[in-house]
Design a protein that fits this description.
Number of helices: 13
Strand order of the largest sheet: 3-2-5-4
Largest sheet: 4 strands, antiparallel
Strand content: 5-15%
Radius of gyration: 33 Å
Order of helices and strands: HEHHHHHHHEHHEHHEEHE
Distance between the termini: 65 Å
Length: about 325
């Protein structure tokens, strides 16, 4: 009788059978169909979708989600569907190279394409509804809509006065920590054992005497310290990470130019000489101008996004099929 017509051969692909089964299930999932039909079609977050997300949270945390976490999750799902709906309404899915590539790869994976022409692959993907069900495509569209909403036009860039006002309100977040440059003589706890404190005290006396070695040679009075004997412009956090809290406190409180110690660290004892101290200070406005501008624009972008989402919730009929949800 001959082989089936070539144009229908892709209908016999096993992978397509699984796709069609998924498409049927997808069609009956109200949450998955957001974006189809008219703009005013209700935004429905199905109960099984919420429960599935809650199970993921439980699997990650080892406990049931709190009421607050449930509300946060549902709010996030609503926001995502609203962004997706608006992205499709504005045509953000048309001509997107990332989406076209993803759809083409999906069709190739299914093995249902007659040829490898990109345009043909895209048409077939649209016929199969892959643009509506693919999670990567959905995520791309949501992110495009989110960025579009958050990005302000050039004429709304922060003014000089706004930047300076923002700097005054947030100045403490830019404060630079106190820093010190120092050298130290190290006495290893693992090798000196019972003589550790005594050896450190004798070395300190020698460093304070008239016949003290030159500063660059002071380390020879102690033991090898592979990380180095000089620390440059270190903050409290950096000193605590390297040597511990006791060392950091002693170094920051030391009088510059004098040997201090012995100071304990995780490795043993140290004699410390601070060469330079830089107190904590606020940077000049000009030095952080670009950071201020980026931060202020980001904050305004988030505010624009939240305002847009509030307006969309009024515009659309949002339905959540879960007992924990209370609209409003």
């Amino acid at each position: 009788m001959g082989s089936p017509p070539r144009t229908h051969r892709w209908l016999r692909a096993p992978a397509l059978h699984f796709l069609l089964i998924g498409a049927v299930l997808y069609a009956f999932d109200p949450a998955a169909r957001i974006g189809w039909g008219e703009e005013r079609e209700p935004v429905v977050i199905a109960a099984d979708r919420i429960e599935g997300a809650l199970r993921e949270i439980e699997g990650q945390t080892g406990r049931a989600a709190t009421p607050g976490e449930v509300s946060f999750l549902i709010d996030r799902l609503i926001d995502e569907e609203l962004l997706l709906r608006e992205a499709r309404a504005r045509g953000l899915d048309r001509g997107d190279r990332s989406i076209r590539f993803r759809l083409a790869e999906n069709v190739r994976f299914l093995g249902v394409a007659e040829d490898d022409d990109p345009a043909a692959l895209e048409r077939l993907a649209l016929e199969l509804g892959l643009d509506r069900s693919d999670p990567v495509v959905r995520r791309i569209l949501m992110e495009k809509m989110r960025l579009l909403t958050m990005t302000a036009p050039p004429e709304e860039a922060p003014s000089e006065a706004e930047l300076r006002s923002f700097f005054e309100r947030t100045a403490e977040t830019y404060r630079q920590p106190a820093r010190v440059t120092l050298q130290h003589v190290f006495f290893a706890a693992g090798t000196r054992r019972g003589s550790l404190a005594e050896d450190a005290a004798q070395a300190l006396a020698q460093l304070e005497s008239a016949d003290a070695p030159p500063p660059a040679q002071a380390w020879r009075l102690g033991d090898p310290f592979p990380p180095g004997y000089r620390v440059r412009l270190a903050s409290r956090r950096s000193l605590e990470t390297r040597f511990g809290t006791d060392f950091a406190e002693a170094a920051l409180a030391a009088e510059p130019g004098r040997w201090t110690g012995p100071v304990r660290s995780a490795y043993g004892l140290h004699l410390v000489q601070v060469e330079e101290q830089r107190p904590s200070h606020l940077p000049a406005f000009e030095s952080v101008r670009s950071t201020l501008k980026a931060r202020l624009e980001a904050e305004r972008g988030k505010a624009r996004l939240q305002q847009a989402l509030r307006e969309l919730r009024v515009r659309y009929d949002v339905r959540v099929e879960h007992p924990a949800w209370r609209a409003g």
